[in-house]
Predict the structure of Na+/galactose cotransporter.
Amino acid sequence: MLVSAEELRLDAVAVDYAIVAIFFVFVLGIGFLARRAVSTSLDFFLSGRSLPAWVTGLAFISANLGAIEIVGMSANGAQYGMATMHYFWIGAVPAMLFLGIVMMPFYYGSGVRSVPEFMLRRFGPGAHLVNAISFALAQVLIAGVNLFLLGSVVEVLLGWPLWLSVVVAAAIVLTYTFLGGLSAAIYNEVLQFFVIVAALLPLTLVGLHRVGGWGGLVDEVSASPGGAEQLSAWPGNALSGFGSDVLSVIGIVFGLGFVLSFGYWTTNFVEVQRAMATKNMSAARRTPIIGSFPKIFIPFIVVIPGMIAAVEVSELVQFKAEGTGSVDYNDALLLLIRDLLPNGLLGLALTGLLAAFMAGMAANVSSLNTVFSYDIWQTYIRKDRPDAYYLRVGRVVTVVGTVGAIGTAFVASGYANLMDYLQQLFSFFNAPLFATFILGMFWKRMTPTAGWVGLVAGTLSAVTVFVLSETGVLDLPGQGAAFLAAGVAFAVDIVLSVLVTLRTQPKPDSELRGLVYSLTPKEQRTEQPVGEDAVWWRRPTLLAGISFALIVVLNIVFA
């Protein structure tokens, strides 16, 4: 953030602090209560695989409702307008539905404890180790984004130095995650989901009233820099960085909607872990599908406030018009809260922001401790130890990961739009993983050597595109560089995987059952629900169809 804490200091009073304090009491209380249910490593890392679908479904979406959604998407809304909706309706929901219908049966049915462990069974140690290390690194970096923003809010609220705010914020998340593991993270994510909605909905309504309703917002946005183009989702040239409408649509659909989106939602253990904590296959499949419904409507309380801030907050209006001043797009939401909300609602809004950042960071840390403990420490460093030993390792990694996030928080502080930074990270880590994963799931011939070679080459190609963009060789403003890097990483991974496969030895079919689509019996892929899960309104395919129809309608309405 460019803005100083003094300029952004919120006029909080006792009632605002009381609301925040009550929230922290509940958050820490959940951690202490969840600790009673933790007696094994499975309890700590996967909640004993005992949670209902509605809980994991809300946690699934809340785990993503951190810095990416709240500050990143409001910043995008301020900068690009309605094109930001693509991150939800193109870049999230279709992949979430695919995860629930097609991929969860392989994750849950195979009995693996993490996504890297699935890679170990499908490809062997090479791809597994590359995936586990890259995932661990990514989680520390992304946790730093959430922690930086969480610390920034504490800095604004209390006037503390940023470093002290970051440390205190990290200590709170660390406490409940250390005590209760995944269960504490998930139940807090459910609480945080409702707090976030309760905080952002009034801000959106007050903001719309301030600009004269939707019609007033349309008029003001049309007259602002960027013009009326910001009111249409398509073709989204400003977002994609392409001058051509056709290339922009291709970049958004392929780069964001296919490679980045499917790479994130279907292979990112942060999200998949929530579904794997459920009590049965039906609940696991419904988890991302249930999460897709709030995902469809969240942009209306995240993106719209960003658009309002860009035309209502004087400092942001100047920054957007001239590129000068002491604020940037990341400040959009806090500036709007400062200008619009009275005391009481101010405390609720701050609590919602804190809840969002804590949910995001806790999700990163809880998935990091699982992957590091199971996929790195237990697999390669200390095998065949008692279960209690790995439970202790998980808690130690929780502490170490939080300390690492404190360091990476200051890396995130250097970006004017944090979505640029996050999308770049996703192009490095998620796009090549998705290519390897999807090819290996549907092509039984793909070999273990091709698995790790494709991953490494795909990641390096994405980094190369990033370097070319940063040095000015490629001129792609907005998030076009991330979209291009994701597409290149995917293509390079696929091509090299095919070439290497043709020269190396595949695994026998007997070792691939339950891991490859064509070798897995239909009944194993579509476990028949029984009891309460058998009622028609709990069928995953029906719920997915309704969700998909909604995003088609919304894309048409806002085209």
